[in-house]
Amino acid sequence: MALILNEAGTPRMPARVLAYMLVDDGDCYTAAGLAEGVGVSPASISGAVRDLTAKRLLVEERVPGSRAKLYRVSESDLGSMILATWIPVLMQWESALSAATIEVCGRGGGGHRLAEATSFVAFLRGETEEMPDRWSDYRREPQ
């Protein structure tokens, strides 16, 4: 699973941490527990959980009376959270492709291919923005 997440664009260590947390039976993890479970040093966990909490895929909690932090997979709609992390990437692609299209406007095949790619990414972004609502509707339907 970590390999698939990594190949889909998630950095290597966040992919490993998220994959571990999704398949393991535990609910909350310390950085040391994640390091042991993933088989890496605690220092390498720090950046991974920072990345995953910034994307709201993990929730960070404090242990009362301790400096320790606990991490858990977000209990809210994980599918929508994942989709939300894709939108900024698609917006960057769309912006870059649009700028390139303007730069080569009227230059034959290259301009046409860039315009087509821009149009596709704009379409994909729009569909991705609507997917969380459709996913919520789908989840409410009896399967």
TrEMBL record:
Domain HTH marR-type: from-to ranges: 9-67
Alphabetized Gene3D superfamilies for the sequence: Winged helix-like DNA-binding domain superfamily/Winged helix DNA-binding domain
InterPro entries listed in its UniProt record: HTH-GbsR_regulator, HTH_MarR-typ, WH-like_DNA-bd_sf, WH_DNA-bd_sf
Record keywords, A-Z: DNA-binding, Transcription, Transcription regulation
Record has Membrane as a keyword: no
Claim: Nucleotide-binding is one of the keywords in the record: no
GO molecular function term, any single one: DNA binding
Name of the protein in question: MarR family protein
Source organism (scientific name): Pedococcus dokdonensis
